[in-house]
Design goal:
By secondary structure, this protein is an alpha/beta fold. The chain has 12 helices and 20 strands. Helix 3 crosses helix 6.
C-alpha cells in the first residue's frame, strides 16, 4: 500500500506554454560551459588552463575546502576560457567541443556489491559527487559527512516544470541503478506525485516510496524532508535531483560520465514548447533557435535558466545550469502601459487574492510577465507565507530573524530544515516584495559560517 502524505497548503500557478511531449533534435553545441555558481557553497579553483585538452569526465575545477570534490567536464575538447570575476573568483570554464567525443573510462561496477564508501569514492573520482546537496545549509554535500538519509524527489510541480516521467522513459535501468547506489550510503526516500504511474517510480527497489498528494510545493525535496524525517541540529541529510540519479546510474552501468538530460523549453514566448535531450552546460541558444515568438509580437522576452520561480535570468549565449530541468521564456513586461493600473478589474492577470476577477476562472492559464508590480516595503505579518508553505515552521518570523541577524532565533525557528527554493512561492505572493530566496540564502550562509 502506498504511503501517502497529504499536502493542503500551497499554490498551483497555471501558466501558458507547458512543453508538449515532443523532442526536438538538438546536437551538442560548439561550446559548453560549467559554472561553480551552480553549486551552492562552493569555492572553486580551476584544475585546467586555457589550451588544455579534456575528455568527458576529466575535472575542470575543484572545491578549495574539499579538494577531493571535483567537477567533471560535460564534453571533450579544448579549454577556451577560464573566466574570473571579483576578487579572482572563478566564474566559468568553457570548452570548445570535439566533433567526436572522448570519454574517461572509470570502469563498470556492480552497485549491489559496493559499500557506501565505495559509492562515494566512485562519484568523487568521476567528478559527480558535487551533484549531491545537503541539509542543513542547502549546499553541496561534504564527503566527510555521512547522512542519516538520502532524499530524491521525482515530482516537479512548479509552473511550467518539466515532466520527469517523460525524461525517465528509456532511462529506467540507470535510474534504478542510481537509487540502489544511493541506498548503499544511507536509507533512501523517493518522493513521487499521486498522478505518476511509471513502474520505475511506483515499483522502485531499495528505497522507500512516498506519494505526495497536494499542490506545489509538494515536489520540493525540503517539504518532503520536513514531513518524512526532519533535520535537527547536528544531523545531515543528502538530497539528489532525479536527473543526477540517472547520471550516477550511467556511471556505474557504463563506466562513463554522461551528463545528458531531457529539458523542457517552455513559456508563453516559445512558439512550440517542447523537450530536448541536451548535456549540462549546453549553450541555451541551441535550444531557442527559431523557437521564440517574433519580437514584433512579443516585445522583450526574459530567458530564465531554470524554472520561473527559482531560475536565474540569462541570455541566449549562456549555458544550461547543472540543476536546470527547464529553459523558460516569458514576457519581460518592461514597457507595459496599463490604463488605470492596478485599479482595473483584471481578467487576464493572476492573483492569489480576490482583488482581480480572475479568481472566477480557476482553470485558466495565464501569460504572466516578469514585473514585480510594486516596490519593496515594510513587512506585514499577515500570514500570507503560511498559506503557501506546508512546512512545520514559522516562515515570517524566520525571515525577520534572518534580516535581524539573530543566530539563536534563526536556529530556534528551523533554519536547518529550509532551502531558498522553499520560499519561492512565498516570494511570489509576498505583498512586501522582498527577495525572500536571497534573504534565506544569506541566512543559511551566515549560519554555516557561524557553525
Amino acid at each position: 500500500m502506498d504511503r501517502v502524505i497529504k499536502i493542503r497548503r500551497g499554490l498551483d500557478i497555471r501558466l501558458k506554454g507547458t512543453a508538449e511531449r515532443v523532442k526536438a533534435n538538438v546536437g551538442l553545441s560548439q561550446e559548453v560551459g560549467l559554472r561553480p555558481g551552480w553549486f551552492a557553497g562552493l569555492k572553486a579553483r580551476p584544475v585546467v588552463a586555457v589550451g588544455d585538452r579534456v575528455r568527458v569526465g576529466d575535472a575542470l575545477f575543484a572545491d578549495k575546502a574539499e579538494p577531493s570534490v571535483v567537477f567533471a567536464s560535460p564534453a571533450s575538447g579544448v579549454v577556451t576560457a577560464v573566466e574570473r570575476g571579483e576578487r579572482r573568483r572563478l566564474e566559468c570554464v568553457t570548452v570548445k567541443t570535439d566533433a567526436q567525443q572522448e570519454y574517461v573510462n572509470f570502469g563498470t561496477k556492480d552497485v549491489a556489491a559496493l559499500s557506501g564508501d565505495d559509492v562515494v569514492d566512485a562519484l568523487l573520482a568521476a567528478g559527480l559527487f558535487g551533484y549531491i546537496d545537503q541539509l542543513p545549509f542547502a549546499v553541496t554535500a561534504s564527503p566527510a559527512s555521512r547522512p542519516k538519509a538520502v532524499f530524491v524527489s521525482a515530482l516537479r510541480d512548479k509552473p511550467l516544470a518539466s515532466d520527469f516521467e517523460y525524461e525517465l522513459e528509456g532511462n529506467e535501468r540507470d535510474f534504478q541503478t542510481g537509487l540502489t547506489a544511493l541506498s548503499r550510503i544511507a536509507p533512501t526516500h523517493l518522493g513521487i506525485g499521486r498522478g505518476q504511474g511509471a513502474k520505475a517510480l511506483r515499483g522502485a527497489k531499495d528505497v522507500s516510496v512516498w506519494v505526495m498528494d497536494g499542490p506545489c510545493p509538494a515536489g520540493n525535496v525540503g517539504v518532503q524532508v520536513n514531513h518524512i524525517d526532519p533535520v535537527n541540529k547536528g544531523e545531515v541529510v543528502w538530497t539528489v535531483d532525479p536527473s543526477a540519479v540517472i547520471f550516477f546510474g550511467r556511471l556505474f552501468s557504463t563506466g562513463r560520465v554522461d551528463l545528458r538530460r531531457t529539458v523542457a523549453v517552455a513559456g508563453s514566448e516559445v512558439a512550440h514548447p517542447h523537450y530536448a535531450d541536451v548535456t549540462v552546460g549546453q549553450q541555451i541558444s541551441t535550444l531557442l533557435d527559431g523557437e521564440t515568438v517574433a519580437a514584433s509580437e512579443a516585445g522583450e522576452a526574459r530567458i530564465v535558466n531554470g524554472n520561473v520561480l527559482t531560475g536565474v535570468k540569462c541570455d541566449a549565449d549562456d549555458f544550461l545550469g547543472a540543476h536546470s530541468s527547464e529553459v523558460t521564456v516569458i514576457p519581460e513586461g518592461a514597457h507595459a502601459d496599463e490604463f488605470l493600473g492596478w485599479i482595473r478589474p483584471r481578467l487576464r492577470q493572476f492573483s492569489v487574492s480576490r482583488s482581480y476577477f480572475s479568481w472566477l476562472h480557476r482553470g485558466k492559464e495565464y501569460a504572466l510577465d516578469a514585473r514585480v508590480k510594486g516596490g519593496e516595503r515594510h513587512m506585514i505579518m499577515s500570514g500570507e507565507y503560511d498559506r503557501v508553505m506546508p512546512m512545520d515552521i514559522y516562515p515570517e518570523y524566520l525571515i525577520k530573524a534572518i534580516i535581524a541577524g539573530d543566530i539563536d532565533r534563526m536556529e530556534a525557528l528551523g533554519i536547518y530544515e529550509v532551502s531558498p527554493e522553499d520560499f519561492a512561492l512565498a516570494e511570489f505572493v509576498d505583498s512586501s516584495k522582498l527577495e525572500l530566496q536571497s534573504i534565506v540564502r544569506q541566512g543559511l550562509d551566515m549560519m554555516r559560517k557561524e557553525m
